[in-house]
Design a protein that fits this description.
It contains 16 helices and 16 strands. The protein has 466 residues and is of the alpha/beta class. A hairpin with a 4-residue loop joins strand 8 (194-195) and strand 9. The structure holds one RNA strand of 74 nucleotides.
RNA sequence: GGAGCUAUCGCCAAGCGGUAAGGCCGCAGCCUGCAAAGCUGCUAUCCCCGGUUCAAAUCCGGGUAGCUCCUCCA
């Protein structure tokens, strides 16, 4: 397996800390709002990474955190009158449910900040004791970036004069402009305060990830985990700060490899909280099938920016349709073993830094070849079994193609409509038998107007939702 | 003001120094009562200008254009 390391900025052969095992920590959501397409893409990218590694024979342990202490959550609570707990549990459930609709598997470990306070306090105390952190008069604790000679290694930002150019106001008692809060003391009437030796307050944004990793993973003298992932925007300052904390607190590096996924844009425009043009996953799922969304969001390499638009999504759906039409041709058949050459080619593509585009083209070629074989030999039972197994393999590796084909093509069609379609098809078949093509074509037009496309096959007429 | 990324067929998108994958769209054909589906065939020299090399879309330098990070963000 080769992966692109965003710190070294090059592809590297994955050599895990422990042979045969890969530990992954991905930055999860702050649960104060609905998940958007960007969250989906990140979750999908690392879901596919985990699946690929498992297929390559690694024992994978993946952690994804839920940030459930945060200023934004507090604000939301104040604005809505709901409790912090209500908000965080609601959005956590929603997140898991929506990602589930996209076929994203659950992480092995799903730590929450509120459940990691001991580890957080311990790490901050260690940093204070070792002289890497300092407490200011109001009770805040800051990390002293000047004490870490490797600060900047992750994001390659070395400019000390940034304080003059930076848009961040420099108003507190920080020693250096880049110092960041490990702990924020309670001020006034804020209602989440946790008691610690340094002050009553709450953790800063970055510390939870470092603390959770120390708590849940047991690395070596060199590294805590193999792969740390997240969105490209987290590279700085979030991951730089995480790395610094961990390095200084534990004496070894946080992660051996760093992976970052690119952004999602909507019709060419950046999607962001501040621009207010977030495309929520819940809205997308109302219009598009989760499996189609999964296929589409995965069709562009995870490191590139992804420009979401309906036209491309439709093209992606058509591609997935083709796979399901092949599956329809071999249903029902039992499964044997997938085509070896295909399996190898698919894994090879995925082993190259998750080259999903290549994998999809391998699948398209497989579909075409098997359609041709079936055209020539419609009753080849062994071939059909192999195709069933091949599609099962695709589903386990990439997470699509697992539905029953008839179910797939009839998503959104209720029983009443289904019956009407079937009735019309019976009428049409009779008309065809009687060579009444004017009537049969009229029925087809009626179905087309209903958004139903039909196809005559040797086994009878089948229909699909267009 | 600093740091970085990208630029490949009408559209989406691989390519990672060895002579341009795949999909959508389009055209022609086979099949079909006609269609649809499926199959076959056809469709690009890689933003511009230099350079390195036997060989460059791929490396280097300079342009141009777009995007991102430095502020909550995946």
């Amino acid at each position: 397996m080769v992966i692109y390391d965003s710190v070294q900025k090059t592809k590297l052969q994955l050599v895990p800390i422990k042979t045969g095992e890969v530990s992954i920590y991905v930055c999860g959501p702050t649960v104060y709002d609905d998940a958007h397409l960007g969250h989906a893409r990140s979750a999908l990218a690392f879901d596919v990474l985990a699946r690929t590694l498992k297929h390559l024979g690694y024992k994978v342990t993946m952690a994804k955190n839920f940030t459930d202490i945060d200023d934004k959550i507090i604000k939301k609570a104040e604005a809505t009158g709901k409790s912090i707990q209500e908000i965080t549990s609601f959005y956590t459930d929603r997140y898991l449910q929506e990602m589930g609709a996209l076929g994203v598997g659950r992480a092995d470990i799903e730590p929450k900040a509120t459940q990691s306070l001991e580890a957080i306090e311990t790490m901050i105390q260690t940093l204070i004791d070792k002289g890497f952190a300092y407490r200011v008069s109001n009770g805040d604790v800051y990390f002293d970036t000047s004490k870490d000679s490797h600060y900047g290694d992750i994001s390659h930002r070395v400019n000390e004069n940034e304080e003059n150019q930076s848009r961040i106001a420099h108003t507190d008692e920080k020693k250096n402009p880049k110092d960041f809060a490990l702990w924020k003391a309670c001020k006034g009437d804020e209602n989440i305060c946790f008691e610690t030796a340094f002050s009553s307050g709450r953790p800063g944004w970055h510390i939870e990830c470092s603390a959770m990793i120390e708590k849940h993973f047991h690395g070596t003298n060199e590294y805590s985990i193999d792969i740390h992932g997240g969105g490209a925007d987290l590279l700085f300052p979030h991951h730089e700060n995480e790395a610094a904390q961990s390095r200084c607190a534990t004496g070894h590096e946080l992660a051996k490899y760093w992976m970052h996924n690119g952004f999602v844009q909507i019709d060419g425009e950046k999607m962001s909280k501040s621009l207010g043009n977030s495309f929520f996953l819940k809205d997308a799922l109302q219009v598009y099938d989760g499996e189609v969304l999964r296929y589409y969001l995965n069709s562009v390499h995870y490191r590139n920016d992804f420009n979401f638009n309906e036209e491309d999504l439709l093209a992606a759906k058509k591609r997935l349709d083709k796979l399901y039409r092949l599956k329809k041709r071999v249903t029902p058949s039992h499964s044997s073993a997938p085509d070896t050459a295909f399996k190898t080619a698919l894994l090879e593509a995925m082993s190259d830094d998750l080259n999903v585009s290549m994998a999809l083209s391998v699948i398209d070629e497989m579909v075409t070849q098997n359609n041709e074989k079936l055209d020539l030999n419609p009753k080849d039972k062994e071939l059909k079994k192999e195709i069933v197994a091949t599609i099962e393999f695709i589903n386990s590796l990439l997470g699509f193609g697992g539905k029953e084909p008839f179910e797939y093509f009839q998503i959104g069609i209720d029983e009443a409509l289904k019956n009407k379609i079937e009735t019309l098809l019976v009428e049409r078949t009779e008309a065809k038998k009687a060579k009444n093509f004017i009537l049969s074509d009229a029925i087809r037009d009626e179905l087309t107007a209903m958004g139903i496309s039909i196809m005559d096959t040797p086994g009878g007429t089948v229909w699909e939702k267009a």
